[in-house]
Design goal:
0% strand, 78% helix, single chain
Length: 339
Amino acid sequence: MKDRSIDKKRIFVRRYRNVIILFLFVLILVSVLSVMFGSRQVSLDNIVDALFHPEVSDYAVNVVRKRVPRTVFGILCGASLGISGALMQAITRNPIADPSILGVNTGAALLVVIGITFFNITAPGHYILIAIVGSFVTAVFVYGIGSLGSSGATPVKLALAGAAASAVLSSIISAILIPRSFVSNMYRYWQVGSIGAGTYESIRILVPFVLVGTVLAVILASALNAMALGEESAVGLGVRTGLVRVVSAFAGVILCGAVTAVAGPIGFVGLLAPHLIKLLIGPDLRFVIPLSALAGSIILLAADIVGRLLMYPGELEVGIVTAFVGAPILILTAMRSKV
């Protein structure tokens, strides 16, 4: 019996290692493609010159140097959304939980609009702070509404509460924007979600929030695994469930709120990435969380590449591409979920 358990552990470790190697290879591949494709295509030689030969300064090399921060920014945003989705699904025990589905992105968007309109906020760092506040308030509100009744927070109730909250908050945003064309023009580009504005400055602003949220998620993974067994079992194992749930929600809100502030409300990445990982290696969050970061980065960069290729020489914003892919998967997941 012991030998069989050891064999299963070895098989899992081998599978986990293989999945990591595969995802790292795919991430490198989509990163290279992200730099290569755009309104002007560049070659691998141009990429090598841009990265390793600073003395070279022709047009194609300068194009590469401008695309590199966009690609790094996309990796950070995708990783943040992937981890945030994994945390929200774990906290709510809801397979269709995602920042966009639960209305968290819309809550962040509302406070950003309020900050721009009434407080003349323009700095990206300030965007992040108010977006995180909006995300957290919306998350608490949606979970509170979805938890009403004897059955608690079921997947359907949470999804409905999130949809209702998104509808109400979107209406408030429209009411603020309609009489203010200058704010509406700023918001129109931002609201669809795009990594096109990624710069080294936006990366510098985003990195601290990504690090804090990621570290908290990794630390809490074992406790969240225990909570997946049930509230009583988790308490019996010494888990302080209330504290774990609050801190996990805080980490998820930091991750999705920061991304929403600098890139706009990009949906469905947080839904797709954890589901893909769970299909490959199972539900253990100690492994799901780091791999969801890789999967989220791959999904977001791939969607960005597709958007550029579809609308060449222009581009289709990544938030639109992820919505087209994610919406059918959301429907299938909801149909298969046990309520």
